[in-house]
Amino acid sequence: MNVSARLFLDRKTYHLIRNITLPTEDGTTQIDHIIVSPFGVFVVETKNMKGWIFGSAHQPQWTQKIFRHSQKFQNPLRQNYKHVKTLQTLLGLTDSQIHSLVVFVGDATFKTEMPTNVTKGGGYFYGLSNPTGARYLHQSR
Length: 141
What we know:
The protein is α/β, with parallel strands linked by helices. It is built from four helices and nine strands; from the N terminus they run αββββββαβββαα. A five-stranded mixed sheet has the order 1-2-3-7-9, sandwiched between helices. A four-stranded mixed sheet has the order 6-5-4-8.
């Protein structure tokens, strides 16, 4: 994620902030990446996983399957929701100014249809690159 963002996003337009810990009512929350652009603030949850990934927007847990071994993990959209709401409150942003994005890096294969704001590798560039893409990501929440 860091390397691809530096290679493909214009530094004059996009500002990448990595590994931020913010205060919450019940402690703190850690955000992998925040990308600030004229098209909005993008809160990015990065998952470095391999194998088959099963999940949907409304399931509390998703499944990673590597050969015969299955492991449950928290729905990253739910995880990122807390990040988005914390940052939104701290900065006083409206819903249309902030966007949730989950990016899987590594050798993962989606085995179920994923929401539009869940992608692999560099697939997130579409949503960052223009206002239409930002609206597209926003509508998928």
